[in-house]
Design brief:
Rossmann fold, 3-stranded antiparallel beta sheet, 25% helix, 6 helices
Amino acid sequence: MDPIPLAPEPIRPRLPGRVVVREDADTAIDAAAADLYFQALACVRAFGDFHLALGGGPQPEPLYRRLMYDPAFRELPWKRTHLWLAHEHASPDDDSSVAALITGWLVEHSDIPREQVHFVPMDADDPAAAYAEELREVLAWREKGHDRLDFVLLGLEDDGSAGSLVAGRPASRAQSLVSTVARGPGARVGLAMHMLKAARFVGILATGARARPTISMLARPTADPHEFPLLELKPIGGELRWYLDQAACPKPGESEPRS
């Protein structure tokens, strides 16, 4: 009997930053949660607080649940944490808003003080400007040079975007902290490239076979950073880390390594 041919091994995609590949989604989520946890402890020791920005979407949802039920993360210092949103697309009282989802996943089940939960004021005349001002005021309590976000967690979306870094739209090179993508219904407000590049740590979570075509697309040598702003996300003095499982990694022939 002829041996059954083995499926080709996935390849580690060449993406900006460091790529962490684990066997399955659970262990990839564990890796991201562990980095978040240790970064929180280190920042509280160094600065007295921890500034965490979270994105919405299906990719990070299992991680948020893990933070609440896994004993390994029970000591996460929520009382010393300032929670920010990496992006928002609806008014805070909308059940589909990132604020509502984060509240249901984390805020209601942790002991984080409500005054340390910062949501995008989508009902303001200029939500981006109002949120940028709040970021400046709260981070100003830190020593200059350390007045930046400590950890930003984003979930990769099917179109190659994450948070306010939307595929097909050029990344803003302005020194703004918060940006607006489109206006009116469907507008998305979130952290601008300048703010993300200043962060101490940015993690991008992408697991499952559904993420593989998107990862393949981003890893191609011909991928245009102007079309996919994630490719321009390189924190200055910080770290960018991708968390993938094997199912999300391209198979040979699906993409070529980036040069």
